[in-house]
Design goal:
21% strand; 17 helices; 5-stranded mixed sheet; alpha/beta; Dna Topoisomerase Vi A Subunit, Chain: A, domain 2; 585 residues; Rossmann fold
Length: 585
């Protein structure tokens, strides 16, 4: 961004700077002064503040979320040194013809691991024949990509007109498959990790995979490689994904090429098998790997929300859905915002949201921003309870990167239509969590001859199948029937069986949570009424106080003393920092 666009259609020349404080000419001053190029305007780019020391023109510019601008790399066109060619041919079994085909070059670059300028190999990334990124590789696995350049798959142009494509974990693996006669092969640019897979390269390239009939996931034969493979399969759709069988002792495609040669590697690549999706599963063939993994590493632990007293009771598991109920104004939607934003800050999850009661979506975003930033969005009596400008903008950017909304005015509002939109968000944005709030807004047409109970059962099965197919977790909000009041005038605590329509809401859900608000004390209690698997949580309850000044839920066990004394609840932090690896700034 080279200038700020102002309300008066005046522009400030930032001299190609992106941050810091500068002095520049004032567009508000007289033409004579501007022609003298007098740098009388001070600009704080980071805060958006400007003031002219001549005409006193001043103000603040709100920086909207910018479109990402990518650095265009300088081509490194130096031919490979003889020693580099010999290393590829003798050690990696990659011929010079393959190196020429992929445009591999040499350079000298400053490398982070070596902390010095060293000779490097350049793996050049092209899209439509144009260079968009370069990965540099030095000795001792010293790697780096061009800073701020676009992340895409390596060798992307090779798959344009192909129906079967291979995805590997490294550039040398891609060269190895080409050496074996497999030409439609791409590599991820930044390897694999055991934790959350960040796939900006897929976000930037997903449309090129839409017409593929077979996608062979040939990632490394280790835990991180399996994690990458499974997330790619989730994004592409396992129904068109295939895997290869690794020979004993081989970790990746290049090791297979080195040990067995090109012909054997080609046979391995052609001997692919689909991922088991439906039908009969054999214990000794289809399930054995998972069973041994459970034996060696324990049951899958799910994802903790990062909310103190909730974590000991409830975990989010991929392939499951959680039903949340509660009487009107109990805070069901607000609690979901609390949980989803916390999961995003803790684990980087992206969410797709269909919310009928939180409309328009722009207002819903302001609630998410409050939970992300840890303070109120709107004006407050005491300014300390409101997000600062900087906190607001950081939180808004985080919401932009982690939350997407289904436009309820422009889509098919049947369950099938909503789930189809959710499936598209898996593929295009990598969403792993979803919210459907609430059930009773979904357009439903019960077929002739089918009872409401049968229809709800069928719909809940569709939700469960969606979660399992896409390894997602979905929150379903369902309202209870009209509840009775107890002798003290308070409503009874709802259960999953209180939900209007069918007992299947309790029977079929993986997890069930009832939100109960005591309107006298202000305490909000979450009753965990069902947990599918014992290792993911337990039945019980946890309590929160909602601070109306900051609009934050605070666990009661953090405020027990203050609550008993009826003292004002003090916010512990004005801003909850995002985890370092998730900071988008």
């Amino acid at each position: 961004m080279q200038n700020y666009e102002l309300l008066e259609n005046l522009q400030i020349d930032l001299k190609n700077k992106r941050s810091g404080t500068i002095k520049t000419t004032c567009p508000k001053c007289s033409p004579e002064r501007r022609n003298k190029k007098d740098p009388c305007l001070s600009v704080n780019i980071d805060e958006g503040l400007y003031r002219c020391h001549h005409c006193e023109w001043h103000g603040k510019v709100f920086n909207k979320i910018p479109k990402k601008e990518y650095t265009v790399p300088i081509p490194r066109l130096e031919k490979l040194e003889k020693t580099t060619i010999e290393w590829f041919e003798n050690v990696r079994k990659i011929s010079n013809n393959t190196l020429l085909r992929f445009g591999v070059t040499d350079s000298v670059e400053w490398m982070p691991k070596s902390s010095a300028e060293i000779p490097v190999i350049c793996f050049n990334y092209y899209r439509d024949g144009k260079l968009v990124n370069t990965k540099f590789r030095g000795k001792g696995k010293d790697f780096k990509l061009i800073k701020n350049a676009e992340l895409i798959f390596y060798n992307l142009d090779s798959i344009k007109d192909e129906k079967t494509v291979y995805v590997v974990e490294g550039e040398i693996d891609a060269l190895s498959l080409y050496e074996a006669g497999i030409y439609s092969v791409v590599s991820v640019p930044n390897g694999a990790s055991k934790g959350n897979q960040k796939m900006e390269y897929l976000d930037n390239c997903w449309e090129l995979f839409e017409d593929k009939e077979k996608i062979v996931l040939f990632t490394d034969n280790d835990e991180a490689g399996y994690s990458l493979r499974d997330e790619l399969g989730r994004r592409f759709g396992f129904e068109r994904c295939y895997k290869v069988n690794y020979p004993e002792g081989c970790k990746d495609a290049n090791e297979m090429l080195i040990q067995f040669g090109a012909e054997t590697l080609k046979r391995i690549c052609e001997n692919i098998e689909p991922f088991p999706i439906e039908g009969v599963l054999s214990v000794g063939e289809d399930l054995i790997d998972d069973i041994y993994h459970f034996w060696e590493h324990g049951y899958p632990s799910g994802v903790k929300s990062g909310i103190d007293n909730l974590d000991e009771l409830f975990s989010l598991m991929e392939g499951q859905y959680t039903t949340i109920t509660g009487i009107p104004s109990s805070g069901k939607s607000e609690i979901i915002d609390f949980i989803t934003t916390s999961v995003s800050k803790t684990h980087g999850w992206k969410w797709g949201i269909t919310s009928f009661e939180n409309q328009p979506s722009s207002l819903h975003v302001t609630k998410l921003v409050e939970k992300i930033g840890g303070a109120a969005f709107g004006f407050r009596k005491d300014p300390i309870h409101r997000l600062t400008q900087s906190q607001f903008e950081k939180s808004l950017l985080f919401a932009h990167e982690h939350f997407t909304f289904v436009n309820v005015n422009k889509v098919d509002l049947s369950l099938d239509g909503i789930l189809q939109k959710f499936a598209e968000l898996v593929k295009q944005r990598g969403c792993k969590g979803f919210v459907l709030d609430p059930w009773n807004y979904i357009e439903s047409a019960i077929p002739s001859g089918m009872t409401e109970t049968q229809y709800i059962s069928e719909c809940l099965t569709k939700i469960k199948n969606f979660c399992m197919k896409y390894s997602a977790h979905l929150f379903l909000v369902a309202h209870p029937t009209k509840l009775k009041k107890e002798a003290n005038g308070k409503y009874e605590i709802p259960t999953m069986y209180s939900i209007s329509g069918s007992a299947h809401f309790f029977n079929k859900t993986d997890n069930g949570i009832a939100v109960y608000r005591d309107f006298e004390t202000g305490i909000v209690t979450l009753y965990i009424q069902k947990i599918r698997y014992s290792w993911l949580g337990k039945l019980g309850y946890c309590e929160f106080m909602f601070n109306n000044d900051t609009r934050q839920y605070i666990p009661i066990n953090n405020l027990a003393t203050a609550f008993k004394k009826q003292e004002p609840i003090q916010q512990q932090n004005n801003f909850i920092p995002l985890q370092q690896e998730e900071m988008p700034f």
